[in-house]
Structures are given as C-alpha cells and as structure tokens.
Specification:
By secondary structure, the protein is an alpha/beta fold. The chain contains nine helices and six strands; from the N terminus they run αααααββββαβααβα. It has two domains: 84 residues, no CATH class; 190 residues, no CATH class. It is 49% helix and 10% strand. The strands form two sheets. A four-stranded mixed β-sheet has the order 3-4-5-6, with helices on both faces. The protein has a two-stranded antiparallel sheet with strand order 1-2.
Length: 286
C-alpha cells in the first residue's frame, strides 16, 4: 500500500482534524465491518459538540477547502482498507502454506525465527520468515541485518549524527547508515486486540517521526516500511488501528505499508531499489 499523493504532506492541522473527528465520530460503522466516512454535516456536529470551530469545514451545501479535503480523505481511507487491505490479510493457515512453499522453492540460508508463542501455537514467524527469504533472494549477495540488536544510527564523519530511540526489526544493509528499515507486526495467534498490538502501531509512529526529523534537518532519507498480517487481529479487532496506519502513511512517517499477501508481491521490487541505492553509495556485498 502506497500513499495517495493527494494527501501527502498535508499541513499538521489537517491531521489534527482527522484525528479529532475520527476519535469523536468513531472509525467504524457500529455493528458492521464498514469503515466510517463522515459527511460534512457530521463533521460540523462533531466539532460543535467538542466546542470547536465548525465553520472551518463549511456546510454540506458549501464545504470549505478543508472540509472537502477531509471528506475526500475519509472516503479514500475507507476504500483502501475495504478493497485493498482486507483482501490481502491472511490468517495462520494461509500464511503457513505460503511460507512453506517459499521455503521449499528458495532453500534459504537466512534466519527463519520462531514466533513468541508457547505450546501448540509455537511455530515459525511466517511473515518475518517470508520477509527474510525474499530479501535474501533479491539482495544480490549484499548484507542485511535481519535482527538488529543495536539502535539504528546515522553517522556523519564517522560520528553519530542521529540514533533512533528503539530497535527496528530489520535494516538494509546495516543498522548503521541504513538505506531501509522495517517493522513487522504479525499476530496470527492473538485472540484480542490488546495493548501490545496497539503499542506496535505507536512504535512505528515514533520511528517515523524521528526519521522525518532526520530527513528535514539533515537531508538524509532512510526508507521506513511497516509490514503487517493476521486478518482476525487487524480486521476483526483492530480496524480503528488500520485507520491510524493509513493516517501515518500519509503523514509521511512510513514510506509503504505491506499487508499480508502484498509482501511477496511488492518486496522483490523494493529490494531491487535498495540494492541500486547501495551500489550508488559504493556499499559492497557481504
């Protein structure tokens, strides 16, 4: 899932309105799987109830520029979630089948970690393993840190320039001066949308804000990706957080979000782009 250029780099007050209206009106039509799309009138009512300026969105008959852009964005957010994200989400059975088929085909030597579950739920981390195998296959022999155990650091003249607050799930080609970093949020055996899952969204937001500051202040662009899967967790329980992820994508805090099946379709192209950038920098193969 790539961002829609219409909504990239909207001013901060636009996203303040998106968040305010979403939390007050709700993200989902109650009793359905439908993502809510507020009308101009419902936006006006929400702002009035919150004792905020409802004239900022105009009226249904004469919406303001802000009101029209908000309406267009809410329509887009609902459409991309219902028509793109939901069909790409998998549950454990399908993810396992795809993982095992890819493993048989590629015969990988890269790390294939286990999940953190216990007992009958203990199994390979299907999405993480898929990501690792695809990167290893298409990286043309270049290094990749599949499990960084250090903080991501960008340097200048061999001295730290910026160091992120938390560890990422992967970095290419290295956790020091990476071209790309990513987070993987797979919850195949989770039965509720708990605080741990919610925290995962906000962790990616924090990373994105730090990388935005690096890009704006130092002119250094580190690609940032979020990869998610598990239909029950994200769609049945966490649609409001999927809305937040779409918001985060368009705020520029994530370059792309890869959802379930989309990982196998999109990642080879992305890795080829990373390799091209690495070669342009003169970075060597492992």
């Amino acid at each position: 899932m790539k961002p829609d250029v219409r909504f990239l780099r909207q001013p901060k007050n636009f996203w303040a309105n998106v968040r305010t209206l979403s939390q007050h009106l709700g993200y989902v039509v109650r009793g359905t799987e439908q993502i809510k799309v507020p009308t101009i009138e419902s936006m006006r009512q929400a702002l009035t109830e919150l004792e905020l300026n409802s004239d900022s969105v105009g009226t249904e008959e004469k919406p303001s520029k802000l009101g029209m852009t908000l309406r267009d964005y809410f329509e887009f957010r609902a459409e991309v979630l219902e028509k793109h994200v939901e069909p790409n989400l998998m549950e454990a059975k399908e993810a396992k089948k795809r993982f095992e088929a890819l493993k048989k085909k590629l015969k990988p030597t890269c790390p294939l970690p286990m999940n953190k579950q216990k007992g009958k739920k203990k199994a390979p981390a299907f999405l993480t393993g898929t990501v690792n195998m695809l990167i290893s296959e298409y990286a043309q022999g270049m290094e990749c840190d599949y499990d960084p155990r250090e903080l991501t650091t960008v340097t200048l003249d061999r001295a730290p320039l910026r160091t992120l607050a938390r560890r990422v799930d992967g970095a290419f080609p290295s956790v020091v001066n990476p071209i790309a970093v990513w987070e993987i949020k797979e919850y195949y055996y989770t039965t509720t949308f708990g605080s741990r899952v919610a925290d995962g969204v906000y962790e990616s937001l924090l990373d994105g804000m730090e990388l935005e500051e690096l890009r704006d202040q130092e002119g250094i662009d580190v690609k940032h990706y979020l990869m998610i899967d598990a239909r029950y967790t994200w769609w049945e329980c966490g649609r409001s957080y999927l809305c937040r992820i779409v918001d985060m994508l368009h705020m520029g805090y994530v370059d792309e979000v890869l959802v379930g099946k989309e990982v196998a379709e999109r990642l080879p192209t992305l890795v080829a782009e990373w390799v091209k950038l690495a070669k342009a920098r003169g970075q060597r193969k492992s």
